[in-house]
Task: inverse folding
């Protein structure tokens, strides 16, 4: 049993009820059920002022803050309505409804068409996308098989390669240096003949995929060792050979280039 | 020397036409849910000078009665105070520059009553500052088409993106209305009509 007099408890309860009514009205205005000017915001503020000294619990203060927040939203809507009414888009809803009722469908459609600029867009498949999709579909295993866990196998441990293995792979010995010089000379000749940077893909791309990858691999060394410079233009990659190798990497950044088959 | 300059200009021309083609493909082919392409995507795929490329493309398209339009995914009233329209929200679309006649509109699959209903719904929403309860719009359409047809029409307009509905059942102008319809022209024409 609270120690407060009964009249005070009644006042607090009445205050809560009034604030909830204000919130409901504000919500209805936000949902466009009432005109924003339907609510007397000043009266709402007066009500808040009247009950503010009587609030004691945390929930009452939250209710007070929430009411203030909803009232400020109504003020914002009133402001928007005033701006809208002063714009050329304004038309009285009642008047417009009567006009729409009286207009024939055809006339209304004609008026609408005069302000309608439909979007142009195309939806289509290309041969390439169909081919890619078919390849994907054919390679796709049934879901049961895809979900099967592969048995774990122990991978082979890293091993050291001797010079013969590296030589067989073409990544070691004098042959590698010779190949670099050969590629550098080729790049030089191309550069001198056109007097403009050489397109990376024109230089690297060959009919054979393996050869393309090998040339790209060697070109990466030409750039790293300072035999040539790579320019990343927005549209293409360009190569410029140096007359004399600088002997050090031109820049300390990696530039990944994907090679498609 | 002259030969070199000619080569250079030809090179620049093809480079530029490549960008035009790429911009056209991005704008016209449907790739996502919504048509057109976002600003950041154009910047990424075409480069910093994408606006110049679009301007050039717009000149070419205008001869075909088409134009490139910049549209926002959000209306200014939906944006929070102080929020700037970022490139995330800006979308570029290709729209018809002129307008269609009734026969043409029928040819592209629109019925007269649907067009009239859409016009009425948009005009009504506009008169209510862009938002109104769904029941009010249905009532307006129901006066001409009957209750069931009105319900179907509102659903159709919602699906096609001309209007949007929130959780409280309040209808608002959709992204497609903002992109395709000259609202000022619509209200002016409606005001001019002698009923």
Result:
């Amino acid at each position: 049993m609270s120690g407060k007099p009964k009249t005070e408890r009644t006042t607090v309860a009445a205050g809560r009820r009034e604030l909830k009514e204000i919130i409901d009205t504000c919500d209805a205005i936000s949902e466009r059920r009432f005109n924003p000017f339907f609510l007397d915001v000043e009266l709402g503020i007066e009500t808040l002022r009247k009950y503010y000294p009587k609030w004691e619990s945390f929930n009452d203060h939250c209710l007070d803050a929430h009411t203030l927040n909803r009232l400020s939203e109504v003020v914002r809507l009133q402001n928007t309505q005033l701006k809208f009414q002063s714009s050329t888009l304004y038309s009285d809803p009642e008047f417009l409804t009567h006009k729409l009722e009286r207009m024939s469908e055809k006339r209304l459609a004609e008026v609408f068409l005069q302000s309608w600029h439909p979007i142009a867009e195309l939806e289509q498949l290309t041969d390439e996308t169909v081919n890619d999709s078919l390849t994907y579909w054919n390679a796709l295993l049934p879901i049961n098989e895809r979900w099967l866990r592969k048995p774990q196998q122990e991978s082979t441990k890293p091993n050291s390669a001797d010079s013969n293995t590296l030589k067989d792979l073409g990544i070691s010995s004098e042959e590698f240096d010779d190949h670099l010089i050969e590629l550098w000379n080729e790049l030089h000749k191309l550069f001198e003949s056109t007097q403009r940077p050489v397109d990376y893909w024109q230089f690297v791309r060959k009919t054979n995929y393996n050869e393309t990858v090998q040339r790209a691999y060697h070109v990466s060394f030409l750039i790293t060792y300072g035999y040539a410079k790579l320019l990343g233009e927005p549209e293409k990659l360009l190569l410029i050979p140096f007359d004399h190798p600088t002997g050090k990497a031109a820049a300390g950044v990696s530039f990944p280039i994907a090679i498609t088959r | 020397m002259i030969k070199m300059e000619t080569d250079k200009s030809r090179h620049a021309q093809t480079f530029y036409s490549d960008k035009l083609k790429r911009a056209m493909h991005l704008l016209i082919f449907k790739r996502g849910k919504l048509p057109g392409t976002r600003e950041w995507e154009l910047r990424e795929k075409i480069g910093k000078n994408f606006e110049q490329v679009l301007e050039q493309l717009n000149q070419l398209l205008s001869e075909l009665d088409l134009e490139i339009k910049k549209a926002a995914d959000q209306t200014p009233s939906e944006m929070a105070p102080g929020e700037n329209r970022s490139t995330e929200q800006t979308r570029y679309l290709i729209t018809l520059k002129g307008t269609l006649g009734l026969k043409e509109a029928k040819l592209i699959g629109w019925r007269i009553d649907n067009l009239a209903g859409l016009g009425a719904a948009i005009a009504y929403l506009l008169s209510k500052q862009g938002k109104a309860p769904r029941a009010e719009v249905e009532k307006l359409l129901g006066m001409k088409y009957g209750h069931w047809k009105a319900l179907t029409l509102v659903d159709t307009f919602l699906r096609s993106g001309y209007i949007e509905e929130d959780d409280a059942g309040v209808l608002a102008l959709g992204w497609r209305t903002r992109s395709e319809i000259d609202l000022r022209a619509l209200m002016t024409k409606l005001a001019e009509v002698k009923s």
Observations:
- The beta strands of chain B are 37-38, 66-72, 90-96, 131-133, 163-165, 170-173.
